[in-house]
Design goal:
The structure is a single chain. The chain is of the alpha/beta class. It has twelve helices and eight strands. The strands form two sheets. A six-stranded parallel sheet has the order 1-7-8-4-3-2, with helices on both faces. It binds thiamine diphosphate (TPP) and magnesium ion.
């Protein structure tokens, strides 16, 4: 796969088209129907929760939030392959993978309410907290990969970064280190076309982002990040390579951020309606849904039922989070052994 789709050819790996039709039978992954429907339902859960969080922010019930809207197939592809014992090294736009790893929606809500309990994942093993300093998490991933190799463990570390993050020194240091030490890390670039308002076209002079793997002597591939099957297959192959000692792998997942950069951004200032409409055709959920409906595995009726149910869940979670917030501890609780007098004086 990595030879056939070398980034030097600027060729994108796809399995289904925009209508959900299989166009690449050679690389179609084997996933049984029951599991596939479960994956789709999980994607729907993540999308519904994501849209709900944005609406909570508009109501003043949650703070700044970076929407995942439109990028769900990437998170789901990794989420379906990652194992409980693997490492998840997130940036901040991977809600679906976090949920797949066992992070709860409640913890995510708490995080975006600024509560430290939102970084204390109780059910998710080997999952680092959300990382906002762009690309800094990749250095941790390379180090984790080194430790996995040193300890002779059969594990993979999955690390995320955005297209903008590839311009950070940390990205280059991490991929270089990982390449030199041949560590089992899968780097996933979510190329959602923008770093806030900066389009990928002015982010780099490279023909694509996956091509950066060539300079570091690691395998790389450009994949349609809105094609769930393509994502799944690429991540599955990358994991196999890592487990065989042939890692790391750099994946550029090409997608589109349908929402704003964060809830404090207004994308209409820097992109056109025509551009948004063109990407709408490639929406990852629509494509997978079309595939499932064609195979008789899903229906619009079932979808409507599930969305109502999921909205209800997320409302319940939100109410619980409000209760936790009311009982929050002082922000210096874990810093000092007893608060300094000056902090108690309120001046
Ligand atoms: C080191 C650092 N510099 C700047 C910022 C401010 N900042 C937050 S998000 C962002 C853009 C990130 O773009 P990209 O890597 O494409 O990820 P995306 O937000 O599109 O998922 C910037 C510059 C930051 N968080 N950290
Ligand atoms: Mg981006």
């Amino acid at each position: 796969m990595f030879k056939e789709y070398t980034p030097l050819k600027n060729k994108i790996f796809q399995v289904i088209d925009n209508d959900g039709k299989v166009i690449n039978t050679k690389w179609m992954p084997e996933i049984d129907s029951e599991r596939l429907v479960k994956i789709y339902k999980d994607m729907l859960f993540a999308r519904t929760a994501d849209l709900q969080i944005v609406s909570y922010q508009r109501q003043g019930r949650i703070y700044t939030y970076p929407p995942n809207y439109g990028q769900e197939a990437i998170a789901a592809g990794v989420g379906a392959v990652i194992k409980d014992h693997d490492w998840m090294v997130p940036a901040f736009r991977e809600l679906g993978t976090m949920l797949a790893k066992g992070v709860t929606l409640k913890e995510m809500f708490l995080y975006f309410m600024g509560n430290e309990e939102g970084s204390n994942f109780k059910n998710a093993n080997f999952t680092l907290p959300i990382s906002v300093p762009i690309a800094s998490q990749l250095i941790h991933a390379a180090g984790i990969g080194y430790a996995i190799k040193y300890n002779k463990e059969k594990k993979v570390a999955y690390a995320f970064v955005g297209d903008g993050g590839t311009s950070e020194g940390d990205f280059h240091e991490a991929v270089n280190f990982a390449g030199v030490w041949k560590v089992p890390v899968v780097f996933i670039i979510q190329n959602n076309q923008y770093g806030i308002s900066t389009p990928t076209s002015v982010q780099t002079a490279s023909e694509n982002l996956a091509i950066k793997s060539v300079a570091y002597g690691v395998k790389g591939i450009m994949v349609d990040g809105n094609d769930f099957f393509a994502m799944y297959r690429v991540v599955e192959e990358a994991a196999k390579l890592c487990l065989n000692g042939e890692g790391p792998v750099l994946i550029e997942a090409v997608t589109y951020r349908k929402g704003a950069h964060t809830t404090s951004d207004d994308p209409s200032k820097y992109r056109t309606k025509e551009e948004e409409d063109a990407w709408e055709e490639k929406d990852p959920m629509k494509r997978l849904k079309a595939y499932l409906i064609d195979k008789g595995l899903w229906s619009e009726k079932e979808e409507a039922k599930i969305i109502i149910q999921r909205r209800m869940y997320s409302n319940i979670f939100m109410l619980r989070c409000r209760t936790i917030l009311k009982s929050r501890r002082n922000s210096t609780t874990d810093i000092y052994n007893g608060n300094p007098v000056r902090l108690n004086n309120n001046n």
